[in-house]
Amino acid sequence: MTVPLALGYIRLVDAAPVVIARELGFAEEEGLALDLRAAPSWSTLRDLLALEQIDAAHMLGPVPVAMALGLGGLTTPLSVLSVLSVNGNVVGVSDALAERLRAVGGADFGDAAGTGAALVAAAERPLRIGVPFPFSMHAELLYYWLNAVGLPAPQGISVRTVPPPLMAEAIAGGEIDAFCVGEPWGSVAVEQGVGELILPGSAIWAFAPEKVLAVRTAWAETEDALAGRLLRAVWRAGRWLGDPAHLTIAAEILARAEYLDLAPDIVDRALTGRLILSPRGESREVPAFVAFHAGAATFPWRSQAAWIGAQLASRAGLERTESMAKASAVFRPDLYRRHLRDTGAELPGASSKVEGSLNRPTPAASESGRLFLPADVFFDRRIFDPDERE
Fold it and tell me: HEC string of 245-263?
């Protein structure tokens, strides 16, 4: 007998682990009947989880941290059982802004510093940039990148909240000049001939946690066994997605009408990292454009949560050290280790690390002794040590 479990998600490629967990039977193997519910916006999804209308959610990593810091209205304590995906975002611009970029030397899709300098030179007014939600890695990557290249953000730009499926429509209608969004919605703008991609999110931070598996903390405590079954099902789905031989099937499943309702080849672009940048057909292959498994991609590092907490605190005027501590407590490596110990998962020996310090795959202490962490550098080569106090 299976136990029903309601899980909310947004129509994005990085919802793949929860979709695959349902469609390929990983949830059923754990005795779960996953009821996947697509939400129209991130605010709706957050509210559904906080108000106990669903049990778990495919969620933006910064949302549970923002709630822990008292930002955004709702403060229901949430716990992150795992990271669902790493990277997977693109920065794109309108056709008009793309023309201005070419006039000042153009954008190099892999070069965040050079593309940022060109964007600053091409901007004719405060840029109107669409992001899916104020508390999102999209926003954090934009602010980090633009500040580093000399464009004060968010002060020097106009940030608009646009649900991912509406991003192409917003740029076509002249509501925004640029966007940072998860795939496939950047590729949809290219496909519709209304925008061009100028940068992958991974060019800003090489290993940025994107979506997470979030539950109410109270639910995780009272339904510990159920939380473990969910975590194992989704982890196994992520491991399946980590095999390149499975990506064509994954694209076909995600493309179905009940999920993304798009042509499979558009979904395939994100899964394989073979992106088409403009309506003229320029293409670029981005290794590990989105990751679901390799390099302990799903491990909920407390240092990643602390980085998010530090960024939010700096803009909200909150005390940094306290905010980092509250943020770190949201990510739950303790639950991850306990529930995945018997699955063969690579379990890091530490719960935090220095973010941005690895410029190549590097061996790391783990229970198996076989873990290699991938490069995680920030484009400006800064590092973030959660143990340092300013």
Answer: HHHHHHHHHHCCCCCCCCC
Q: Find the mean pLDDT for residues 26-38.
A: 98
Residue 375 DSSP code: P
The pLDDT, as a whole number, for residue 159 is 96
How far, in Å, are 19, 212, 345 from residue 58 at the CA level? 10, 6, 20
316 Cβ contact partners less than 8 Å away, ≥ 6 residues apart:
69, 71
Tokens 């109107």 belong to which residue?
128
Smallest CA-to-CA distance from 172 within 282, 270, 93 is with 93
Dihedral-angle region of residue 160 (phi above 0 means left; psi in -120 to 50 means alpha; beta otherwise): beta
Q: What's the mean pLDDT in 301-328?
A: 98
Angstrom distance (rounded) from CA 78 to CA 64: 6
**Over 90: is that where the pLDDT of 107 sits?**
no
Tokens for 129, please give them: 């940039």
- Structure-token match 């943020």, residue found: 327
Position 252 scores a pLDDT of 98
For 281-348, the DSSP string reads --EEE-TTSEESSTTTTT---HHHHHHHHHHHHHHHT--HHHHHHHHHHHB-HHHHHHHHTTTT---B
Query: Residue 365: phi, psi to the nearest 5?
Result: -60, 135
pLDDT digits (tens, 9 = 90+) for 243-259: 999 999 999 999 999 99
Instruction: State the DSSP H helix or E strand holding residue 129, giving kind and residue range, or none if neither.
Output: strand 128-131
Is the pTM here over 0.85, yes or no? Answer: yes
Alpha-helical (H) ranges within the chain are 16-23, 26-29, 42-50, 62-68, 95-103, 112-122, 137-148, 167-172, 185-191, 217-222, 224-241, 247-254, 264-272, 302-316, 320-330, 333-340
Q: In the chain, what are the domains?
A: 3-86+208-257+292-350 (3.40.190.10), 89-207+274-285 (3.40.190.10)
Give the Cα separation of 86 and 304 in Å (integer). Answer: 11
Q: What is the pLDDT of residue 389?
A: 66
For 50-97, write each residue's pLDDT tens digit. 999 999 999 999 999 999 999 999 999 999 999 999 999 999 999 999
Average pLDDT over residues 289-307: 97
